[in-house]
From TrEMBL, chain A:
It comes from Kwoniella bestiolae CBS 10118. Residues 203-281 form the RRM domain. RNA-binding component of the eukaryotic translation initiation factor 3 (eIF-3) complex, which is involved in protein synthesis of a specialized repertoire of mRNAs and, together with other initiation factors, stimulates binding of mRNA and methionyl-tRNAi to the 40S ribosome. The eIF-3 complex specifically targets and initiates translation of a subset of mRNAs involved in cell proliferation. This subunit can bind 18S rRNA. Residues 1-38, 156-200 are annotated as: Disordered. GO terms for molecular function: RNA binding; translation initiation factor activity. Residues 23-37 have a biased composition (Low complexity). This is Eukaryotic translation initiation factor 3 subunit G. It is found in: Cytoplasm. Belongs to the eIF-3 subunit G family. GO terms for cellular component: eukaryotic 43S preinitiation complex; eukaryotic 48S preinitiation complex; eukaryotic translation initiation factor 3 complex.
Automatic annotation (TrEMBL), chain B:
This is Eukaryotic translation initiation factor 3 subunit I. It comes from Kwoniella bestiolae CBS 10118. The lineage of its organism: Eukaryota, Fungi, Dikarya, Basidiomycota, Agaricomycotina. It is found in: Cytoplasm. Belongs to the WD repeat STRAP family. Belongs to the eIF-3 subunit I family. WD repeats lie at residues 6-47, 54-95, 192-233, 289-319. It holds the Pfam family EIF3I.
Length: 286, 341
């Protein structure tokens, strides 16, 4: 280095020693994967090498001239001179939200009525599928539940119990008299929720021998009849994005997850027999 | 649906707007800076203000409006000024001074006229002013309004131009909805008890023939722009801060939550800080999108109905691009027409 610049004084030399190597970017022509290597200093002024492997996929979109022109505008204000592309300081991509347009059940006010929800004598009509106050044939969940119910090989009593607890009726069932009680006001509860719930405290199921064609939404559809689902993830190959036939489903309630294991383990799905079991946290795995 | 979270503000959002093509989003907040964002990837194009001495606002920016050609931006703030900006460079072109804060601004359809509403405070009445904008020499603007409407009754909080820009529609603190002639400044029609609480937002339908209002009285209502006849009511459980009508699909989006002062005493789930989707015709709720940690202050929908954005008290803007399932959705099955995608 000194040979190239013979006139450098000692101060500049010092700066050069601390200088970080230039970031490199190489693209593998066979796989199309770009490897970006950059260097940075951490809090203790140590050099850290950051390697990112990404695949760039060009998405072509037809836009009007004015939109295309605006894409080329230089940044201004506080962002003046910054490189193009989203800045991680101001832009983050949120976690995938499940959003589906469907009528929101208005069953709540009816269930709050103490007379209607009171279990009356033997003559009362109780749906065998969802324990609602209507004939089984008119059950709104008939199609979803009948299939699963037929698979149930265990005693009827246990099933009824699980059904009532299992959140198969969309609202209610959480407090006395079928009335919805907010989690904070439930007996034994009282603790407030935290802003970021850790992944590990959610009851998570591991689904193996899943069809490789099953997407997140398919898995969600398969399991959401047991209760509210917090997260679904299908494990994919890092490079090809092809499913590995393995998925994780996190329920919000443990009993819903138990119910799902009982009903879904061994069930056929897309010509394969599902294997559903509790997911072991990383540390406990053999 | 993966939301893009934009964190360019230090304080709560006051208003967000998409431009005509929907490729840019402008957000105004209480921290006196206005941000411009690319909606496709969440990249920030720049800030209007934020650097000392560049002519930015010096107080809460209450309102922002963009013209249909995305050339000029109008902002109104609590420092008693209204500013005209060049969007491509972020330069402030002109400043109007008032005696009180500017609460709402809007462009008319021809992009040559704006309206501004000033706050009623310290003996000053709430005034709606209409200004001509000189588009050829944007730094030379007149400070004399072409029409001035001094409101004697309840102050106006929000306003909107009707199609063809002959009238403006206003929402008032008392819950009144009124229609004013732009040329004469006369009140041509009004409904005193349109809402029973303060009207917090007013947004038009894609063709402008009807509009939606949201109110602190926990309802949103759709009115006919011509007759001010009430067409639909959407009752919710929380005070509403914003409402908008989605083009393309028959839904409206509502946002709200309890008052900012009571936020810290309630949990996130009880706070109902969700954007709520309602079916416009059947007046039934059809979906919710959660994510904010505070009440939603402002909502805006992509002009082609492909996305929507929400800005909240927590200082974040979330841009949501709709999934394929949204465009095919028919929540009421056979009651609704087939969807062509």
């Amino acid at each position: 280095m000194a040979a190239v610049k013979p006139n450098t004084n000692w101060a500049e030399d010092d700066i050069e020693a601390d200088e970080l190597p230039q970031p490199t970017e190489t693209t593998d022509p066979n796989t199309g994967i770009t490897t970006i290597t950059s260097w940075k200093l951490d809090e203790q002024d140590r050099k850290v090498k950051v390697t990112r492997r990404i695949r760039r996929r060009v998405q072509t979109q037809v836009v009007s001239h004015s939109v295309a022109e605006r894409k080329g505008w230089a940044k201004f204000g506080l962002d003046k001179g910054k490189a193009s592309g989203p800045d991680r300081k101001t832009t983050i991509i949120g976690e995938n939200l499940h959003f589906r347009i469907a009528p929101v059940s208005k069953a709540e006010p009816e269930q709050a009525d103490p007379v209607a929800s009171k279990p009356t004598g033997g003559k009362a009509v109780v749906c065998r599928l969802c324990q609602g106050g209507h004939f089984t044939a008119k059950c709104p969940y008939k199609e979803q539940l009948a299939v699963i119910d037929n698979m149930n090989t265990e005693g009827m009593d246990e099933e009824e119990d699980a059904g009532a607890q299992g959140g198969l009726a969309p609202k209610g069932a959480s407090g006395p008299g079928g009335k919805y009680v907010p989690p904070g006001q439930r007996a034994g509860g009282g603790a407030g929720e935290s802003m970021f719930r850790s992944r590990d405290d959610l009851p998570t199921l591991r689904i193996t021998s899943l069809s490789v064609d099953a997407e997140e939404d398919d898995v969600r559809e398969l399991f959401e009849k047991f209760g509210r689902i917090a997260r679904v993830s299908v494990v994919r190959d890092r490079e090809t994005r092809q499913s590995k036939g393995l998925a994780f489903v996190s329920f919000e309630e443990k009993k819903h997850a138990e119910e799902a294991i009982k009903k879904m383990n061994g069930r056929g799905y897309d010509s394969l027999i599902l294997n559903v079991a509790w997911s072991q946290p990383r540390g406990e795995r053999a | 649906m993966k939301p893009i979270i934009l964190q360019g503000h230090e304080r709560s959002l006051t208003q967000i707007v998409f431009n005509f093509e929907g490729d840019l989003l402008f957000s105004a907040s209480k921290d006196s800076v206005v941000n411009a964002w690319f909606t496709s990837n969440g990249e920030r194009l720049g800030t209007f203000g934020g650097i000392k001495g560049d002519g930015g606002h010096n107080g809460t920016v209450w309102t922002v409006a963009v013209d249909s050609q995305t050339r000029f931006l109008i902002t109104g703030a609590a420092d008693n000024t209204m500013k005209l900006w060049e969007i491509s460079t972020g330069k402030c072109l002109f400043t109007w001074d008032f005696l009180t804060a500017v609460k709402r601004v809007a462009w008319n359809e021809e992009d040559d006229t704006i309206l501004s509403i000033t706050e009623q405070r310290s003996g000053q009445p709430s005034i709606i002013r209409i200004y001509k904008i000189n588009r050829d020499e944007p730094t030379q603007q007149t400070t004399t309004p072409i029409t001035t409407m001094t409101l004697s009754g309840s102050k106006a909080t929000v306003a909107l131009w009707t199609p063809l820009s002959e009238y403006i529609l206003t929402g008032h603190e008392s819950g009144k909805v009124a229609k004013y002639d732009v040329k004469s400044g006369e009140e041509v029609n009004y409904i005193d008890d349109a809402h029973s609480g303060e009207i917090t937002d007013i947004q038009g339908s894609p063709d402008g023939t009807y509009f939606i209002t949201s109110s602190k009285d926990k309802t949103a209502r759709i009115f006919d722009s011509e007759t001010l006849e009430e067409m639909k009511v959407f009752p919710t459980e929380t005070p509403l801060n914003s409402a908008c009508i989605a083009p393309l699909r028959p839904y409206i989006i509502l946002g709200g939550g309890q008052d900012a002062m009571s936020v810290t005493t309630t949990s996130q789930r009880a706070g109902k800080f969700e954007s709520r989707f309602w079916h416009k015709l059947f007046e039934e709720e059809v979906g919710r999108v959660k994510g904010h940690f505070g009440p939603i202050n402002t909502l805006a929908v992509h002009p082609q109905g492909k996305a929507y954005a929400s800005g909240a008290e927590d200082g974040f803007v979330r841009v949501h691009w709709f999934d394929e399932s949204y465009f095919r959705s028919r929540p009421f099955g056979d009651l609704e027409p087939e969807v062509e995608v």
